[in-house]
Structures are given as structure tokens and as C-alpha cells.
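To: structure subgroup
Subject: Chain for Friday's discussion

All,

I'm putting the inputs and outputs inline so they're searchable in the archive.
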Amino acid sequence: MRYVYPVALEQDEDGQYVASARDVPEALTEGDSEAQAVEEMGAALAAALAGYSLEGRPLPLPSAAKPGEHTVPVEPLVAAKLALRSAMQEQLVSNVALAQRLGVSEGVIRRLVNPDHASRLDGVVVALAAIGHGLIIEDQPKPVAV
């Protein structure tokens, strides 16, 4: 799955730009400029999707952006952790089973799938490979602050 969501911006009565994601209604943020609101949305999406993951809820699939919407990626490490947890759920692989495959403790896996833990990306990549998945990384230009 590509963890990039469409985001709408509106300017409120105080001049702040409010960013919202219709696919992830829990992700809301604001900024002094459009660029700041869009940049802040990466963290808001990560936090909201982490909540979904920790609660065991399915992650919402990103829909196509509508005219005037921005596309915002989830922070890379969080996206990788969400991908790992989703792949494990799809394949019914428990933390213990993955730990055995990797020769590590279950606690290591618990930290790898915890979006709030500052794991190393290479550890998540190794865990994904152990269950037959990979990670694709792409770059994109950031919005220019106005």
C-alpha cells in the first residue's frame, strides 16, 4: 500500500490554514501557511494511523486526490511500521512467530511494530523481508513555503 493521503485545506476566520484528510478523519492540523499545514499533516496522519494500528483497526486505503487537494505522505518510519503490522495481520503472523523467524525476542518485534518507538528503518525492512514483503521508497518535492 502507498501511504499517501489526499488532504484538503481551508482558511479559517483567524487566517489559519486547516488541513484535513477525508480518508483519515482523525488527522487534523493547522498552520500559518498552506505549506506549513501540509507539512504538519504528515505527522498528524502518522499519529492517527498509529492509533488505528494500535487499536487493531484496519487502515483506511487512500483515495484518489480530488482537484485542489494536496497529497501528503505518512512519515517514512511510521509508514514502514504500519506496512509491517498490516503484512503480519494479512498473513496471520504473530509477534512471537516473526521473532522466531528472525531469531530475536518478541519484545524486539513489539518495538518494530510500535509506531511510537524510534526503531531503525533497516530493522523494519529485515522484518518485512522475513514475511515476504519489501519496502519501496520514493521521493517527491515538498511544497514551497509562501
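Points worth raising on Friday:
The beta strands are 4-11, 17-20, 28-31, 70-73.
The chain has a mean pLDDT of 90.

D.
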